[in-house]
Amino acid sequence: MIRHLKRHFGMLALGFPLFASASAYNGNDTTKTFIIPANKSYVEPYREDNPVRYNQDRPSAEIRNWTESGTNISWYLYAKPAVYKVYLQGKLPAGDKSDLLLNITRTDGSFRPQQAKLHFESDSNQVYAATLNISDAGYYRFELQPKRKTGKEFLQVSQLKFVAVSGDSAEVHQTKYLSSPSVHLRFGPEDQVKREYDWLYGEITVPEGYDPMYTYYMSLGFYRGYFGIQANRSTERRVLFSVWDSSNEGVDRNKVGQTDRVTLLEKGKDVTGGGFGNEGTGGQTYRKYMWKTGDKVQFIMNMRKLPDNYVVYSAWFKDNEKDGWQYMASWKAPRETRYFDGYYSFLENFGPGNGQQTRKALYGNAWGKIAGGDWVSFNRARMTYTDGAPGQRCDYAGGQDAKQKDLFYMSSGGYSATQYNQFTTVPKGNKIPVTDLKQLEAQVDHAINNAK
Fold it and tell me: Domains in the chain, please, with CATH?
């Protein structure tokens, strides 16, 4: 599930050095050795049922059960200018032999590819791979490709080793997080006047090819929850609407008293309801729904004040006009009186196994309806991110879309160069997204009255 809201806004998009050394090095001023553990790599192509096993959360761990010829092991590393000797370390059971290829490229395509042939036997725990001359700092991909084996496994991979033989600025390292950075857009009107809204509206389009598994494209986020779409598995996608409890408990919802819990008043067809913990606690509703890339998904949310410091949050989505607005749920929240003051969206990779893949979505046509008043176009956004600490993932982008100038975009992953504008303004929306709210308001009325 997603990271807690505090993490999403824990770091503003401020400038800092792109990277600081994160890998171990040994030696003196003229010889530096950088060790990259096997478990800081990716299994490619990614499959849910891939037999390759290793623990990405440990400081270092071997890759085991590498048995399939169609599976590669790839590291994405940041390297600074120097000449490096590259070695691969691993082991095989007694009597086994294997042949591998090491393909070295740069993620932006600006480096002439190199390929090295490697031969391992049971008595060779380290094999020289290549001498690598890097003239420009950037992300490089080291892909280990299997060719032949005499035993069960191609290799139990331990680590890559880089020995800098020249270059004062030599540096090679992986990042702590193999998942890609989380990125966010905080929407509001161009005039930056603070207002109170009781309706929010937004849209997301995920371009084809930018929908890897374990991605959350969140559209309407507010001070107590979030609403968006997910790519969960190769055969499963979801629409998700969650609201936090009023307690400060961060992990165990069983510790939250009934007077602090949000309550599910009503949910739509095929919607599953429940609770969550470990990132704050609250109520969660989701619907398994195979939304499609290239199709615009619309989201709308309402808050309704009730007596005794309660409010009700209700949400709907739509991806085609024929089916109309699809009701998700209405949640009743205690100890609350606030209206919406705008909203934020985010793009998140919630699984570690495919963080090298690029995620992207278009966000826009953002609106808020003043409580008792008119709709206001949210055509200004501020971008923030997480995981961008020195030495960590900085491959994110965002701002005004190059083709559709009235839309914002966010992307994450791919080990590409950082490109973003902290503040972006697009043309104001000229068409109110929803002119008749009576049917939606009636659903809120029904949820409230049905719960009495």
Answer: 23-173 (2.60.120.260), 183-450 (2.60.120)
- For 143-170, letters b (16+ CB in 10 Å) and e give bbbbeebeeebbbbbbbbbbbbeebeeb
Residue of 75, 84, 71, 70 lying closest to 38 (CA atoms): 75
Sign of CA dihedral 334, 317, 357, 41: positive
Contacts of 436 (CB under 8 A, 6+ apart): none
Q: pLDDT tens for residues 237-289?
A: 999 999 999 999 999 999 999 999 999 999 999 999 999 999 999 999 999 99
Burial class of 295 by CB neighbour count within 10 A (0 to 12, 13 to 18, 19+): exposed
Rounded-to-integer distance, Cα 358 and Cα 347, Å: 11
Chain segment 186-238, per-residue pLDDT in tens: 999 999 999 999 999 999 999 999 999 999 999 999 999 999 999 999 999 99
